[in-house]
Amino acid sequence: MGEILKSLKAAIWFMFLTFPIMVIKVNPIEDTVVWRWMNMAYIGVGVFFLSFLWRFMLARRNQGKKAEESGKARMPIGQRIAEEPKIKYPAIALVGAFALTIPFWADMYNTNIMTNVLIYVMLGLGLNIVVGLAGLLDLGYVAFYAVGAYSYALLNHHFGANFWVVLPMAGFLGAAFGVALGFPVLRLRGDYLAIVTLGFGEIIRLVLENWNEFSMGPSGIANIDRPPFFGIKMDLFQKTDFMYYVVLALAILTIIAVTRLKNSRIGRAWIALREDEIACQAMGVDRTKTKLMAFALGATWASMAGVVFAAKSTFINPPSFSFWESVLILVIVVMGGMGSVVGVILGASIIVLLPEYFREFSEYRMILFGGAMVLMMVFRPTGIVTAMRQKYTIHK
Amino acid sequence: MLELVNVNTYYGNIHALKDVSIKVEQGEIITLIGANGAGKTTTLMSISGIVPPRSGEILFEGKPIQGMPPHEIVSMGLCQVPEGRRIFPHLTVSENLDMGAFLRKDASQVKQDLDYVYELFPRLSERRTQQGGTLSGGEQQMLAISRALMARPRLLLLDEPSLGLAPIIVKQIFQIIRKINEESRTTIFLVEQNANLALQVAQRGYVMETGKVTMTDTSDNLLANEEVKNAYLGMGE
Ligand SMILES: Nc1ncnc2c1ncn2[C@@H]1O[C@H](COP(=O)(O)OP(=O)(O)OP(=O)(O)O)[C@@H](O)[C@H]1O
Ligand SMILES: [Mg+2]
């Protein structure tokens, strides 16, 4: 009952506060004032319901917390499903079959979109190493993506370099950039680290935009080759399908690598370092090296994803590597569930597919993502899928 | 085995250790006692390289280690159980233990040592898959000691293992400290506020006051010393 009263109060306040902008409309040309009383009613009703919903959800969440503290909490549904082998393996098989057969039944447009999803899965998993596991907030992640994309685009443009040759090279180059950025900023924490990495990302983009002789500036690089397949001639459809499979293979490789990392000693060291640096030092963990490794590994994947992106779109220019791209990848990681592989895959799918299939949605996507993030932080701070590490046991 | 010669350590411009000289012989248990803020923790942090000294020498088995990064010092066979336990709350017991063996590559030896610490602390063995943060204070202290043992140190630095524990658990832990010293010939450097207990297990002791070592003697002599009795043993009985 008290809740309803509170919501009513909020509604009245909002009606009062938005009165000047929502209700009164002055027309200076005809010197008339239009009173739009209906707007006030809409706001009143809308705020009342939203506020009530909010309170209801909060109450439910708090109940959940209490249950957890008293040890009575049930595992969340998602987790229970993920734990149950009877569901887990068929689910993996189903998703696998779906992913493998897409080019057979989807048209070129949709295959392309799914390729995009996979690129974001790679990016999300890469950033997940840095943010989700090592706990280093990197807002300039897109810089490494740009490094990969431009290294392939330029090498291909000038020397006709082969995709398969550049891919591993770009991986190493990305790692080198990761170390180069990581070294000076590792002593920073939290917000400071975020600001410096943000700056780094913007610097890379500005250099690409303005250094015309090197990167061809804002006009970008066109006619980048798609990956070749033993020199077999392919038409555009086949090329698109082949591209899809290349990215799928790389995404699977990423998933395997990240899963193994997560359950390895170094993965645990990242988590430990996040929890207690002094204890880590006392145990002989080299702080600098361990953090640099996270940066370098994350950058490696971003850079390889960049090569794939350049090859897939055959054209790149600096606006593809703006700050918003970094934010988008971060949203994927945070929304999906920090540190969780399944979560990142889910997050990438949502973030890429929603704006594609609901065109109207794409105009407001930043607002909606922002709103979604705030709600997530309040109601599900661990993300859609709560990260689970394999419990570790030492075997003979 | 370990020798500190005129070590000076600072926090910014706070002079925390003033010309501290301490000697630890192979195979013994020595203790460093002193009031709050005397600089005991700082001494251990300086040895471990986590708070490097500004001047002076620290020799471990004859080799100077001052200025070396902490992970190299650990790899030489010197490991610390930090004050307040500092276990990793979101790692399980066995994962915490594996963090202790972080620098070790010899999987089969690690496995042996794991069995050894589980034998030492059966309580931990029952709680292998429990998260560190959910252990009781006493269990956390056992875990902290075990985690350090997993590094296979020849010299074990213990910072106030009795902190915040019930007398019966403290007694148990001190028995185990003695056992570790006897069974695996691990040299132990014990920092304590509970001077009475510390001097009972240790063979020798150092007394520290406001950053300086003010006294050193065998435990028996210190226990009998009037000053020590008044200051650290609660009114000279
Ligand atoms: N991180 C720090 N920054 C600044 N000063 C510090 C820091 N750590 C310790 N000090 C100061 O150094 C002095 C020695 O502290 P230390 O922690 O070594 O004392 P302690 O003997 O271990 O005390 P306790 O028995 O309470 O643990 C104290 O005056 C303390 O305020
Ligand atoms: Mg102390």
From TrEMBL, chain A:
Statement: the UniProt record of this protein carries the keyword Transmembrane helix: yes
Membrane topology: Multi-pass membrane protein
Keyword NADP: no
Transmembrane segment boundaries: 12-29, 35-56, 118-137, 165-185, 192-208, 242-261, 292-315, 327-354, 366-388
Sorted UniProt keywords: Cell membrane, Membrane, Transmembrane, Transmembrane helix
Subcellular location: Cell membrane
GO MF annotations, alphabetized: branched-chain amino acid transmembrane transporter activity
Source domain of life: Bacteria
UniProt-listed Pfam families: BPD_transp_2
Secretion signal, residue range per the UniProt entry: none
Originating organism: Desulfatibacillum alkenivorans DSM 16219
A Gene Ontology term for the protein's cellular component: plasma membrane
Designated name of the protein: Amino acid/amide ABC transporter membrane protein 2, HAAT family
TrEMBL record, chain B:
Keywords: Amino-acid transport, ATP-binding, Nucleotide-binding, Transport
UniProt keyword Repressor, yes or no: no
Top-level taxonomic group: Bacteria
GO molecular function: ATP binding; ATP hydrolysis activity; branched-chain amino acid transmembrane transporter activity
InterPro entries registered for this protein in UniProt: AAA+_ATPase, ABC_branched_ATPase_LivF/BraG, ABC_transporter-like_ATP-bd, ABC_transporter-like_CS, BCAA_Transport_ATP-bd_LivF, P-loop_NTPase
Gene Ontology biological process terms from the UniProt entry: L-amino acid transport
A Pfam family annotated for this UniProt entry: ABC_tran
Residue stretches making up the ABC transporter domain: 2-235
Keyword Nucleotide-binding: yes
Family: Belongs to the ABC transporter superfamily.
Identification of the protein by name: Amino acid/amide ABC transporter ATP-binding protein 2, HAAT family
Organism listed in the record: Desulfatibacillum alkenivorans DSM 16219
